[in-house]
From TrEMBL:
The chain crosses the membrane at residues 298-321, 342-368, 394-416, 437-458, 470-491, 512-533, 817-840, 869-891, 911-940. This is FtsX-like permease family protein. It comes from Streptomyces pulveraceus. InterPro entries: ABC3_permease_C, Membrane_comp_ABC_pdt. It is a multi-pass membrane protein.
Length: 952
């Protein structure tokens, strides 16, 4: 029999066997198809999300041939891709106020162009007022296609219409047909449609025709000096070149002579030779090196993991299939077939099912990507120009799926071919002892890999961390058969069902160990990434410096010189109290200064003077992390010790934010006990009594010595203060006073924006000037967009130069990746447990018949299936969690080493590098998933057995 004929027969037998065992075949096809589906969807999504050069040009300039921008820097030279340019005369001064040239004179003859210009503006919303970007471009013009697209409604036309993006409408409560007013000019506009920028779907902006917004705004500012003119850059122009000619490189260089930077579609896609680019010939030009991409490594890793998962999960299925077909394989031997033919039959099953799974995975992957295209686009933040299908890559993915099916069937094929014909016909399995060498080698490899990973972490070598982690995981994989065998001894005192499940897992390690390994591999990667993300999130939260106390909002006003802003505070307070979730009465504060006249934005003639808390000298008042010996000290400190030292009062004296409550450099504010309760959160009757008695409350004890502080004030005088100016004109007067203070506990030194609260009468006694500046409120939650817009609308009716600031805390961590990883690991765990349980039922049919025959209750079968699922899932999850901690901890050691090096260069930099376990993720995997797997297996298993015919 020829090789071709033998394989034809083997494939025919494999196809018939697959049709007879439809359940097991569908399981194998699903296991192969699902990873192929994922890789296919990932490939198509990545290729579609990554724009080509032509697509990037369309997003930035629509369907035009070029984008012309006036750089106002004189003649320039640029690269063909317009990513870099330089002035011909480097010594020529940049004049921002130079009049713009007539840019239309630089366009190629016969061109058509539309302008593009934008300006930030204040507009009305459904809730109140917000700031946004208004872009003037004729969105209805064909040149804008691909840059701005209409979603619904109609394009704006004329001077009283606008279009808006969906995110803008969502945050402002407006919709198509709504009216908004540009407060800067007072003009009203009707929103006629919803548009989007395909490359920036999350943009909040308004679009209007050229001249609809900026021109009337400028006109009003010229007639009304109270109106601030729009802050605009020179307009850019989308240019359509002469029909069939486009914008050529000579056209670009001609425009460069007038200082115009040109991004030409034709030039970018077909650049001129380097010899024709003047900028490349300049001695001062240096190209920016491109960073190498790690995409290929990531794709290889993902593909390798997918192959490993398939082999580990599908291998036992082929092994059980070969075992159930051993009588058929034995008959093949009696008819003259040898080991090659037995291997061919089993491998044929891998080829048939692998081919079906690969094709199914690619087709379904393409279908799902098409169905969920809009969702993927919104998640990515930009539209696909088209689904990028690369036949070569899709074929390679399908081939990998096919080869994976063969690899999964390879080991079962070898085992089946080594069985004697007698064993195959009688159904005896024989006695095979587990290898004693493999677990010993695995344990050694596990120890070596863990050691290499930890050494890589301490030495800062990420490559050693990755390599050591992989080696450690391989070592643990080799130990799994012994671990599974040990499980059988744990069930001696357990009830019947769990005891049988443990012993069945131990006896049939060939199907249990690969499933446990598959779960371990999936959970290890998920736990490693989740642990690293949780740790870096905790580090970012620690490093975050709040600008004000969390849970508060601060209402502030400009100085009295700013058109009486302080006098508008009562109405502003009412606006805040009416529109925000305030939970306390206002804690009013006053700004303090030493000059006779203070203008926050004034010049030297309106100097606010200066107030300084003089820090005492001596070791107790000096931060150890500054000055001599700081680097040596930082080198000896642990991360926790350094963290505590950074938060000490002496080290906080130079890190407090300024400008929140006043203009003085040391953050002194005039207020009463309400400020202590509302903002400082210091509920101490002694502190409130001290303020009432005229004693300042010092929050940072590092400024005090023997309960006293030294206050240095430099009194400056304005020419407007004729009385004082006549007596003190010239050099400012400086006074120094010692004040008895109430010193707050050390923890209050970290209060943002305040070092000391001074009573009003004490400021007056010292000859300092104060005025009402604002109020502080506690709020139930950070202000929402609607609340902010409503509050600003109410305050706008009061007047300008009054504003509200809030503390939102550190940026919220995006937990979507952790959720995806947990779901992925959970699905693999459920799948592996279900597969193993299904194989166990198929493999142990005779044992279950015997169990039923001796009188076991029907519920035992359900319980047995449930516990079999729990054994596989729980064992794999626990091992995977332990395995995943190795790379996570090692990578954090790498980060710690880098942080310590930075800290030794600058001792005030934090080296806090925590390792935070993702307990929610671990809890769901260790407890939730095995429990769910067991419950599902129990619920879906039939209690009663069907009558089976006697074999033979």
């Amino acid at each position: 029999m020829s090789v071709l004929t033998g394989w034809r027969a083997a494939l025919r037998m494999a196809r018939r066997d697959a049709m007879r065992s439809k359940g097991r075949s569908a399981l194998v096809v699903a296991m192969i198809a699902v990873p192929v589906l994922g890789v296919t969807a990932l490939d198509v999504t990545y290729r579609s999300v990554t724009p080509t050069a032509a697509e990037q040009l369309t997003a930035s300039m629509g369907s035009s041939d070029a984008l012309f921008s006036d750089r106002r820097s004189g003649p320039i030279e640029q690269l063909p891709n317009a990513q870099m340019y330089s002035s011909v005369d480097e010594n020529a001064p940049l004049d921002e106020n130079a009049p713009a040239i007539d840019i239309s004179t630089t366009f190629p003859k016969g061109s058509r162009a539309i302008s593009l210009q934008s300006a930030p503006a204040s507009v009305t919303t459904k809730y109140g007022i917000t700031s946004t970007d208004i872009r003037e471009i004729r969105t209805s013009d064909p040149l804008a296609r691909g840059m701005v697209e209409l979603v619904r409604g109609a394009y704006p036309h004329g001077t009283n219409e606008m279009a808006a993006t969906e995110p803008f409408l969502k945050s402002t409560g407006l919709d198509v047909g709504s009216t908004t007013t540009v407060r800067n000019s007072g003009q009203k506009y009707r929103i006629t449609g919803v548009v989007e920028q395909p490359d920036a779907l999350k943009t909040e902006a308004l679009f209007a025709d050229p001249g609809a917004v900026i021109a009337p705004w400028k006109a009003k500012s010229e007639h009304d000096k109270k109106v601030t003119p729009p802050n605009t850059q020179p307009a850019e122009w989308l240019v359509k070149g002469p029909e069939g000619a486009g914008v050529t490189w000579p056209d670009v260089m001609r425009a460069n002579k007038s200082g115009i930077l040109v991004t030409s579609r034709q030039v970018v896609l077909d650049p001129p030779p380097d010899s024709e680019v003047p900028l490349l010939g300049r001695k001062d030009y240096s190209a920016i090196p491109s960073s190498p991409t790690e995409l290929s490594t990531a794709l290889v890793t993902v593909t390798a993991l997918a192959v490993l998962e398939i082999v580990l999960l599908a291998g036992p299925a082929f092994a059980v299939g070969a075992r159930r077909s051993r009588r058929q394989l034995g008959l093949l031997g009696t008819c003259g077939g040898d080991r090659r033919h037995v291997r061919a039959v089993v491998l044929g099953g891998g080829l048939v099912l692998g081919g079906i799974g690969a094709v199914t995975g690619v087709v379904v992957g393409l279908g799902l990507t098409t169905v969920f295209r809009t969702t993927i686009e919104e998640w990515a933040g930009h539209r696909f120009v088209s689904l990028a299908l690369r036949p070569t890559e899709l074929l390679a993915i399908a081939v990998i799926g096919l080869i994976t099916g063969l690899l999964a069937a390879f080991a079962p094929a070898l085992v089946a071919s080594r069985q004697s014909v007698l064993e195959s016909l009688t159904g005896r399995r024989g006695v095979r002892r587990s290898s004693r060498v493999l677990p010993i080698v695995g344990a050694c490899v596990l120890v070596i890999g863990t050691g290499v990973a930890v050494y890589g972490g301490t030495s800062g070598n990420s490559t050693l961390v990755s390599g050591g982690s992989v080696v450690a995981e391989l070592g643990l994989l080799a130990c799994i058969p012994v671990i599974v065998g040990f499980l059988g001894r744990l069930g001696r005192r357990l009830p019947l069902s769990p005891r049988m499940a443990l012993r069945d897992a131990a006896r049939n390690r060939g199907r249990t160990a690969p499933a446990v390994a598959a779960v371990m591999a999936a959970v290890a990667g998920s736990v490693a990434i989740a642990t690293y993300m949780s740790s870096t999130g905790a580090e970012a939260e620690f490093d975050y410096t709040p600008s004000m106390t969390e849970g508060t909002v601060v209402l502030s006003s400009a100085s009295s010189a700013e058109a009486g802003a302080a006098g508008r505070l009562p109405q502003a307070r009412a606006a805040v109290e009416r529109n925000m979730s305030v939970t306390s009465p206002p804690a009013d504060y006053r700004r303090i200064w030493a000059g006779s006249d203070c203008n926050l934005y004034g010049d030297a003639e309106n100097d606010c003077g200066s107030i300084e808390l003089v820090k005492p000298t001596g070791k107790a008042h000096t931060c150890p992390l500054t000055g001599k010996g700081a680097k040596e000290l930082a080198a000896r400190l642990s991360a926790d010790e350094h963290k505590k030292l950074l938060q000490s009062p002496a080290c906080l004296t130079g890190t407090m934010s300024t400008g929140l409550f006043g203009t003085n450099a040391t953050n002194i504010v005039v207020a009463d006990a309400a400020m202590l309760r509302t903002y400082v959160k210091l509920d101490d009757p002694a502190a409130a009594k001290a303020l009432a008695a005229g004693t300042p409350v010092l929050l940072n004890e590092a400024f005090a010595e023997n309960g006293e502080i030294t206050l240095k004030a430099t009194h400056a005088y304005s020419k407007k203060d004729k009385k004082n100016w006549a007596r003190h004109q010239g050099k400012a007067r400086t006074t120094t006073d010692k004040l008895k203070v109430y010193v707050a506990p050390a923890k209050y030194a970290a209060t943002p924006g305040i070092n000391m609260i001074m009573p009003q009468r004490t400021a007056e006694r010292l000859g300092l000037h104060t005025e009402a500046a604002g109020s502080v409120y506690t709020v139930a939650h950070p202000p929402t967009d609607a609340e902010n817009q409503a509050a600003y609308a109410a305050m706008a009716q009061v007047g300008s130069n009054v504003w509200v600031e809030s503390e939102n805390g550190p940026a919220e961590t995006d937990n979507s990746m952790l959720m995806i990883l947990t779901l992925f690991a959970g699905m693999v765990t459920l799948g592996a447990a279900a597969i193993t349980t299904g194989l166990a039922k198929a493999d142990a049919e005779a044992d279950l018949n015997t169990l039923s025959a001796v009188g076991a209750p029907p519920g035992v079968r359900r319980k047995l299936s449930g516990f079999q699922c729990v054994v596989v899932a729980l064992t794999g999850v626990v091992l995977g969690t332990l395995s995943g901690l190795v790379p996570a901890v090692a990578l954090r050691l790498v980060d710690l080493r880098k942080a310590l090096e930075t800290m030794r260069m600058d001792p005030t930099e934090s080296a806090y590098t925590p390792i935070v376990l993702p307990w929610v993720t671990i809890g769901l995997l260790v407890v939730g998933v095995p429990l769910l797997a067991g419950l599902l297996a129990t619920a879906l298993t039939r209690s009663r057995l069907a009558l089976a015919r006697r074999a033979g």
